[in-house]
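INTERNAL TRANSFER SHEET
From: sequence group
To: structure group
Subject: Rhodanese domain-containing protein

Please process the attached sequence and return the structure record in the designated field. Keep the field labels unchanged so the import script can parse them.
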Amino acid sequence: MYPKEFVRLYQSPHFEGHIIDVREEWEFHKVKLLGSVSIPLRHLPERLDSLRPSEMYYIICSQGIRSSFAAEYLLESGYTDLRVIQTGIFGLCEYVEHEFGTVPWIIKE
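Return from structure group:
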């Protein structure tokens, strides 16, 4: 899923699902989406019990590579309703800043 589609869904009053950010904690604290949860990719196996296979998850990282690995792992673990945010937080921020300027739901350090 590319930023344009994600933003359309995220801004909808009917947005459903959870946002998992698989970047490292220090990356997450620099810039994050309001409502996202930090689960670094290396900690995903030990945090699986905090997730529900029946829920929808949007997965984001810095550029889309780690989130693809996370989605593959979750699929292998029985999760089916997954969306990888292509271009990651960098591409998302670039798109949002170009289209909307500053928004309150992108939190920067």
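Handover comment: Helices lie at 3-10, 25-30, 44-47, 65-76, 88-100. The domain at 3-108 is CATH 3.40.250.10 (Oxidized Rhodanese; domain 1).
Transfer complete.
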